[in-house]
């Protein structure tokens, strides 16, 4: 049986650049023998973390919405691809809002002193595009992505950040970028 490979596309723009790249990376996973699943974050309804402390005693979020379904899928996968573009020099709001809901796992690990897995061989990649080429445009997003992978106990095997990619579907005209993420998807499996 192949490894379960999940991609979460976080852009509010369906079929945008990061979504295209996530699908291409999943193609690499599939061609290497992985079972693949692609999700659009915008298909799910969730609210931001309320900082209510409801997860402090149990490690489970008390807010009842679709975030729980998404986290179940992420916890069940062997390989994870997070694809989120840069908006205003940071990870897009949709991704950040969802990642903030991982507070429950922080509580589980650091307040309750438990681990999500006894041992974890889980790996993943972060994919991003930015319309600008400003220096350090990916710095903030990379910090958030690294935290998310760490708290979910997924080894961040690679980051793929492409500046100067803005117009919808523009990345589809960049075969070297498509080949790059495809190869990383293959190597992930």
Brief sketch in words of this structure:
The protein is α/β, with parallel strands linked by helices.
Describe the 3D structure.
A five-stranded parallel β-sheet has the order 2-1-3-6-7, sandwiched between helices. Strand 1, helix 1 and strand 2 form a beta-alpha-beta unit. Helix 1 crosses helix 6. The chain has 189 residues and is α/β, with parallel strands linked by helices. The longest helix is centred in the first third of the chain and has 15 residues. 39% of the residues are buried. The protein is globular.
Explain the layout of strands and helices.
Layout (H helix, E strand, L loop, with lengths): L3 E6 L7 H15 L3 E6 L26 H10 L2 E5 L2 E2 L2 E2 L1 H8 L2 H9 L11 E8 L8 H13 L3 E9 L11 H14 L1
**Beta fraction of the residues?**
15-25%
Secondary structure tally: strands? 7
In this structure, how is the largest beta sheet organized?
5 strands, parallel
Helical percent range? 25-40%
End-to-end distance: 12 Å
- Placed side by side, the strands forming the largest sheet appear as 2-1-3-6-7
| Count of alpha/pi helices | 6
């Amino acid at each position: 049986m192949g490894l379960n490979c999940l991609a979460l596309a976080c852009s509010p723009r369906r079929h945008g650049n990061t979504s295209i790249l996530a699908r291409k990376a999943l193609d690499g996973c599939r061609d290497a023998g992985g079972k693949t699943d692609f999700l659009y974050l915008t298909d799910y309804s969730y609210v931001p973390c309320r900082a209510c402390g409801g997860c402090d005693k149990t490690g489970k979020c008390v807010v009842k919405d679709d975030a729980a379904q998404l986290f179940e899928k992420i916890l069940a996968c062997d390989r994870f691809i997070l694809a989120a573009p840069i908006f205003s020099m940071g990870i897009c709001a949709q991704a950040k809002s969802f990642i903030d809901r991982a507070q429950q796992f922080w509580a589980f690990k650091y307040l309750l002193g438990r681990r999500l897995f006894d041992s974890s061989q889980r790996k993943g990649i972060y994919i991003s595009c930015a319309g600008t080429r400003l220096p350090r445009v990916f710095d903030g997003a990379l910090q958030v992505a690294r935290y998310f992978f760490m708290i979910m106990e997924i080894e961040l095997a690679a980051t793929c950040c492409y500046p100067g990619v803005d117009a919808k579907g523009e990345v589809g005209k960049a075969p070297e970028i498509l080949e790059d993420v495809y190869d990383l998807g293959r190597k992930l499996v």
